[in-house]
Write a structure and sequence with these properties.
The chain has 230 residues and is of the alpha/beta class. The protein has a single domain, classed as Class I glutamine amidotransferase (GATase) domain (Rossmann fold). It is built from seven helices and ten strands. It has an eight-stranded mixed beta sheet with strand order 2-1-3-4-10-9-8-6. Strands 5-7 form a two-stranded antiparallel sheet. Strand 9 and strand 10 form a beta hairpin.
């Protein structure tokens, strides 16, 4: 089997509905708990590296020193063109490693809404999200790295996804969320929701309404992306 290493920052933000897609495509997934585990010795050469979300910023290296090593790993891996997929904080770390700016937006984009796909996005695996509400949960945002394709936007965040060739993709939103386990998100991020004045009941209802549609679109998107890596 091929190896997929997932860098995880909080336990409940895992690879969700994408895990079965990895298994059906012959990948064994291994989680590395950032800040607790050492980076795996084979992280640079693994068949696939997945960088997951979390509630910290790429610029908080003094408070969270492991971000320095994580960024260095990503810089080396992305420079080599090794297959890498990033979600939310993961995409921000990838953009940062590629020299793009990442900064707070001053706005919390939290909830389910549709993407606006660019022309490049319409011709990418992200087309499966056309008219499908996806989960947004962020206060920081990345600029599109030099040489990357801009794939998607929302009214609150102009840069929602980028790709560099077939092997590298970063998405600001959460296509992987499993609505059946969404309560863990509401509990784990309770303080952030309270501070932002967001009622968890509205998010719970939206997850129940859009969860299966998002699962189908997300799995189709990720399967197509996996089949395209070289």
């Amino acid at each position: 089997m091929r190896t997929a290493i997932a860098l995880r920052h909080v336990h409940f933000e895992d690879f969700g509905t994408f895990e079965p897609v990895l298994a059906s495509n012959g990948f064994e997934i291994r989680y590395c708990e950032m800040g607790a585990d050492d980076l795996p010795a084979d992280a640079l050469e693994a068949d696939l590296l997945i960088v997951l979300g979390g509630p910290i910023g790429v610029y908080e290296t003094s408070a969270y020193p492991f971000l320095v090593q994580e960024t260095e790993l990503l810089r080396a891996r992305l420079t080599a063109g090794r297959p890498t997929f990033g979600i939310c904080l993961g995409a921000q770390l990838m953009a940062h490693a590629l020299g793009a700016d990442v900064a707070p937006t001053g706005i919390k984009e939290i909830g389910f809404s549709c993407l606006s796909l660019t022309a490049a996005g319409e011709n990418s695996p992200l087309r499966h999200f056309r008219d499908v509400p996806v989960l947004h949960w962020h206060g920081d945002a990345f600029a599109i790295p030099a040489g990357a394709e801009h794939l998607a936007a929302t009214p609150l965040c102009a840069a929602q996804a980028f790709a560099m060739g077939p092997n590298i993709m970063g998405v600001q939103f959460h296509p992987e969320v499993d609505a059946g386990r969404f309560e863990r998100w509401l509990i784990g991020h309770a303080a952030e929701l309270s501070a932002a004045g967001i009622d968890p009941r509205s998010l719970r209802a939206a997850a129940a309404r859009f969860g299966e549609q998002l699962r189908a679109a997300g799995q189709a998107m990720f399967a197509e992306w996996l089949n395209g890596i070289v």
